[in-house]
Amino acid sequence: MKSFIYDRYGYILEEDKESFDYEGFHFVIERNEKSPQETEEINSFLRSFSQNLFNKKGYIVPNRNNALITLSEFGNVSLVAIENFKVCLDDLIRMHQYGMNYDSKSKLSYIKNRWINKLNLIETKIAPSLKVDEYYYQLIMICLTHAIGMANNAISYLEDTIIDYNDSLKVTTLTHKRINLNSYDLLNPFNIIIDSPMRDFAELYKNELISFETLKSLLIQYQATPKDVSILFSRILYPTKLFDLIENDYLRRTDITNEIEAYYKDINQQMMKIKKIHNYLTMSYGIRKINWLE
Q1: Residue 55: count of CB within 10 angstroms of its CB
Q2: Distance, CA of 279 to CA of 109 (rounded, Å)
Q3: Contact between 171 and 228 (Cβ < 8 Å)
Q4: Domain formed by 2-85, architecture
Q5: Of 61, 107, 229, 243, whose CB has the highest number of CB atoms within 10 Å?
Q6: Domain boundaries, the chain
């Protein structure tokens, strides 16, 4: 990757990574399946959005041929640069408020089908590919078995939400595929999607970036309905973190031993957090209960 970034963009790196910092900006090579015209539109959006909303700079870096898309051994990629700045929860809320004007035709059934497809990939391709002779095999299989059970529960809960409240996803805004409270995740245009704001809150809660009390306050602030919190809870159930970790290992063959050990040690704590939010949401918003969580 060092030679690729130098050959195509002219940046000299000390480490062989897909990301680096330079002159106050964080740079990351992102996979790009968009057309050149769509990429130009994304770049224009990023420039105006980051400036108007946060008074910061963000852009897609042109390569040596002055193109925004570069062919690599992994397919088409783009180099995204986001100015580093400290991010707090209010910045995410400001982004949600800004994006409430964006219309979406998304359906909950679309989300459900994506979860089902990811689960099938994990069960039919990734799990069988794990090497039995690897010393952490037993540990990873314990984590995977638990995560698969949670994913099935999340899918079932989302199916019940569709039955209870219909398939539409009316309350949408600019949210993120994955969110941490840093400037790159916040503004990376390849990470921004239109979805329920509950998506971001679920990930922040699961990753311990917001507390139980903060989540309760956010639901009040956003005037969350039983449908909103049902969507939130189904996302809290879904084991995004482990599935991302396992899939990334499958595609790139990285060493995830430490991450698996940390995930295993945290399972009981995560289940306590899920039970706590389940009991609060069922009591305060009247959403469906899951008997084994009571």
Answers
A1: 9
A2: 25
A3: yes
A4: 2-Layer Sandwich (3.30)
A5: 229
A6: 2-85, 96-293
